[in-house]
Structure formats: C-alpha cells, structure tokens
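Submission checklist for the structure archive. All mandatory fields must be present; incomplete records are returned to the submitter.

[x] Identifier: FGD2 protein
[x] Organism: Centropus unirufus
[x] Residue count: 239
[x] Sequence attached
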Amino acid sequence: QDAIDRKEKRSETFKTAVPGLEMEMPALKTEELGRRAPQWVRDNLVTMCMRCKEPFNAITRRRHHCRACGYVVCARCSDYKAELQYDGSRLSRVCQECYLFLTGHRGLEDREGKHKGILEKGAAEVSGKSLLCSSLQLLDKNGKGGMRGWFVIPQDDPLVLYIYAAPQDVRAHTSIPLLGYQVKDLSQADSRHLFQLEQSRQVYTFVADTKELKRRWMRAMARSAAGITHPEEGEDADS
C-alpha cells in the first residue's frame, strides 16, 4: 500500500507541474492492446517519433497516432494495419511495435526487455522518479534567446541534468554533468528569474518561470554539484 501511495503521489505531482499531462501514456497494458481504445498522447507533448525517435517536421515527417497504443509516431513507423477489437475488428493504422504484437509476433516483448540507456528513456518515465523536474529555458551565449524544454535530475542518476525538448519525448536532447559546477544567482542582473551553472569557462544560464521554482532548481543543482545524491529530508523527491 505504501508503494501504491508513493506512486500515486509522484504521478499527481507531475500532472500538477504540467497541466493536463497524463503521467502514464498509454495507460493500456500489453494484453489490452487492440481490445480497449487507448488514450492518445497529445501532439504538442512530443517533438520526435515515439518509436524511431526521429524529429518531426512539417513536410517530410508528420505526426500520426497509433490506434492501438496511442503513441505519436511518424508515417514510416505507422505504415501498418491491424484489426482492433474495440473498433469492430476493422483494420486501423498502428505502429510497428503494436503490429508485431497484434499479429502474433514476439518482437515487441523482446525489444521491451532490453536495457535502455538513460538518454534513451522517455521523459515521463524519468520524471516519475526524479529529484526535480519542470520546464525551464536555457539561454544561448548572448542571453537573448535559447531553448525551452523539460529538465530532469533523475533519482537513479542524480549528478546529471537531462534536457528534453518536450515532457513526453522518448529521448533526451542532451545532458549536463553537474558535479563540480558552481550555482550563481543572477537576480541583480535581470528582472527575470535567472541563475547560472559555472565551471571554468563553461557557463549555462537558465530562466525559471517563478521565483520559487528558481530557488528549488538552484538548491537541487547545488546539491548535485556537491555530490549529494539523496533527497532532502522532509521533501518529496520529485516535487
């Protein structure tokens, strides 16, 4: 029961951080594929195909939904048809993984069982077991622009900051080893909620949405930079 309560609390915390985001998508178990309608992953929560991990673009790689699992996939990865019981056993567009499973192949289970490096783990999976996760902006060197993404310090790799382009992407865009960095508050330099990571000549400048979120990220990064790997007492790991 304690494990169930902790899992539900982590899920609710993540949903609160990203309004409308369902933590476990799709919610279907393997044996339910094709028998129950899936909950579709929203288009704006991914920037790459959730199967082959190639980035989407407006011309050559458009978004499609697998009717079995609900993943957002590219045309190449969804160029399959399978009968779905929940839809009157009509042939519907599905991804390759679901096609292999629904047509009797064992390839899906074999691949699912392989070990994944953390850069290959989905953002939602990593965020559900994190010391801290939220949206941040990473400024470019001139401080005038930069990328907004989903930033995560995982519990199982607490000395590294992982950066995803979107909160449901299946591969991290990049990572920053935090050990040895200095965390600096830039509150006097800008009205925005700015802070930096600095080590030698390497500098990263971040913008948080709120003062409180900035405080939490500065605290979490400082602990990781100092080699502290456990969550603070009295504070939820991923809240």
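[x] Structure attached
Curator remark: The CA atoms of residues 65 and 214 lie 36 Å apart. The domain at 22-103 is CATH 3.30.40.10 (Herpes Virus-1).
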